[in-house]
Amino acid sequence: MELDLLEIIKQAGITGCGGAGFPTHVKMNCQVEYLIINGAECEPLLRTDRWLMRHKAKELVKAVEAIGTMVCASHLNIALKENYKDEISCLQQAIKEENSRVSLHLLPNFYPAGDEQAIVLEVTDRTVPPAGIPLDVGAVVSNVATVYAIYEAMQGMMFTHKYLTVTGEVKEPVIVHTPIGTSFEECIRAAGGSLLSDYYVISGGPLMGKVYSKEEALKQAVTKTTSGIVVIPADVPLVTLRNTPMNTILRRAKSVCIQCSRCTDLCPRYLSGHPLKPHKIMRKLAYAQSVDEILNDFDVRQAQICSECGVCETFACPMGLFPRQVNAYVKQALAKEKIRYERCEDTYSQREARAYRKVSSKRIATRLGVDKYYDYQIDRLVELSPDTVVIPLKQHIGAPSSAAVKVNDTVQAGSLVGRAAENALGANIYCGISGVVTKADTSVTVKKA
């Protein structure tokens, strides 16, 4: 019996290719007015989705049509930045050749244009409510790389490989296509290796990605959600920002904050109409002996709807404080006390000031000290076929997968190695190389025979 598209997506083990990795078959099990494909590539140094839009435009348009039919969408939009001239041209040509009803929605070049809630607001003029999802306003969003994985699944392929950007202090920034489980070290070698003897590595983008020391990075492997690997020097502001201890962050928040409210004025969530006001959280924390005594405060609880985009601390704050990390700290405290977010209104709409308070992507890259890599044109693709892959069984939101193989089993490329938990949020995991299983516990290691 022929499988429907939703089942094909589930069987292929597809999750969101950036962010937290929400299982796509669950996300797409809906009916919506708007299907929005996120081609804005939110992080300023990543180029993967742009490469796919240039080189796989026709495949993307076909997949968007199929997904649109599945979710009964009346509007099929690929949203990308207006300065992506080559990508726009390639997509327009593909839409014309396919006689497709897909349309392009062009965005200004601001950060975070690719944030899911921001892109819904740009395309539909509807604000996703606090702690809500796009479905609340009749939309569903998927990024370009995820849509291309769906296209491959439509051709019978399992989700075994990732496209990702390798950039920064490397000999030749490239797009890498590699099996899930490939080491970061091998990906960096594919870009000609690092130009530095000592360096840090960002997994993802400079604003929301995770920063590793060189030693930590060499132990990491590509997962379904790895969107980029950025090699940076140890002396850029970004590294200092991420390595500041929490007790120092809290002490500065108490003693240095001048209550200028710039963090709130430029907060993308506040501008979208949400009641989040980071400056008030900083103020109330300054007067509290501990975070626990202010968890019932209305303003403090709004930390739960912070997207942690980083505009407040990397661009807005004139005192070099860390509202984003303070919000994350408060969110952890609220979660520990099992305090859930409660909406205070029924409907929300963007604030008038939003139109002229969008932060330039390049300016924010400059503040982070990574603008050197901002204008890189990356078009070369490197296909990797590593001898060994280490595949984590927890690489998506929800329950971890369980090992579907045991030590000494022989597997083929495309074989199931991680089985989604029964009746739980999760996704299957497949191996991208043929070989022998040498480890199978919290991760599965496969070596070529």
TrEMBL record:
**Pfam families for this protein:** Complex1_51K (PF01512), Fer4_17 (PF13534), RnfC_N (PF13375), SLBB (PF10531)
Metal-binding found in the keyword field:
yes
Under SUPFAM superfamilies, the record lists: alpha-helical ferredoxin, Nqo1 FMN-binding domain-like, Nqo1 middle domain-like
Instruction: Tell me the keywords, alphabetical order.
Output: 4Fe-4S, Electron transport, Iron, Iron-sulfur, Metal-binding, Repeat, Transport
- InterPro entries in the cross-refs: 4Fe4S_Fe-S-bd (IPR017896), 4Fe4S_Fe_S_CS (IPR017900), Helical_ferredxn (IPR009051), Ion_transpt_RnfC/RsxC (IPR010208), Nuo51_FMN-bd (IPR011538), Nuo51_FMN-bd_sf (IPR037225), PduS (IPR017054), RnfC_N (IPR026902)
The chain positions of domain 4Fe-4S ferredoxin-type read 296-327
Say if the entry is tagged with keyword Iron-sulfur: yes
> In this entry, which stretches build a coiled coil?
none
Protein known as: 4Fe-4S dicluster domain-containing protein
Q: Which organism is it from?
A: Brotonthovivens ammoniilytica
